[in-house]
Amino acid sequence: MPGGNGALLPALTVASAKGPSVQLRVSEVFQSVQGEGVSLGEPCVFLRFALCNLRCSWCDTKYTWDFSQYRYEDEVKHWSLTETRAALERAGLTDTQRLVITGGEPLIQSAGIEALLAELPRAVVVEVETNGTFAPSVKLAARVDQWNVSPKLAHGGDPAHRRLRPEALAALMATGRAWLKLVVMDTDDTEELLELARGWPASRVLLMPQATSREELAERLPAVQALAAELGFNACTRLHIERWGGKRGV
């Protein structure tokens, strides 16, 4: 059980790639539309995993990892594969639906995700949101249709050695199905984001404003859009904040 400092809990031990031994730590499951990235506006079911290896100061899902502010018992469900599939079905996941796997940092539980996806129809389009600090397994790299890779800049507050893993970013880029999504505070981030984008096709780089409220989004989006145009990258808004003000589970 977590202590009061919000420290990262140990990753799950998965004894087998299939069967009842698999347990997942899940934060929430809900149906909505994708609020960010290249599939912006697409109807989807979200599967949000608990736990994260980073501690971004502006994180809008701290309930998945900061157990100094949130009660682990209230926020984290320990589910089997059967329980997780049932929750996805209740949320409306069908063979033609899009599944967005997010967190927290979902690849902390990559073995469990691999086992879960093996039980879902191949027609389900799978997106994974990741901070880019874990390389995917061979099976995950092949199964996931879209990787939304968001390595964190210095303004998140984590030291570089924790938030930047070049070998993991290279492995994700090598899938050919990854987009680099960089959260930008202002133009002071330009040098850092250009370094992160080095080697990525410009068409697969998106700049997105750091914002947890409609007010922050309205203030920062125009400057981020202008910066993206200047650098030859794409820009995206945060649709869930525009529509619901960042309200949880919608």
Rg value = 17 Å
Our estimate of the beta-strand percent is 15-25%
The CATH architecture of the domain at 23-180 can be given as Alpha-Beta Barrel
Specify the helix fraction band.
Answer: 25-40%
CATH topology of the domain at 23-180: TIM Barrel
| Overall morphology | globular
Number of strands: 9
Give the full name of the CATH homologous superfamily of the domain at 23-180.
Aldolase class I
So what's the CATH class of the domain at 23-180? Alpha Beta
Distance between the termini: 29 Å
Low-confidence segments: 1-19
Major sheet: size, sense and barrel closure?
9 strands, mixed
Provide the succession of SSEs. EEHEHEHEHEHHEHEHEH
Average pLDDT for all residues: 90
Number of helices: 9
Characterize the structure shown.
The protein has 250 residues and is of the alpha/beta class. The chain has a domain at 23-180: Alpha-Beta Barrel (TIM Barrel). The protein has 9 helices and 9 strands. The protein has a 9-stranded mixed sheet with strand order 3-1-2-4-5-6-7-8-9. Strand 5 (125-130), helix 4 and strand 6 form a beta-alpha-beta unit. The longest helix is centred in the C-terminal third of the chain and has 18 residues, at 214-231. The two termini are 29 Å apart. Residues 1-19 have low confidence and may be disordered.
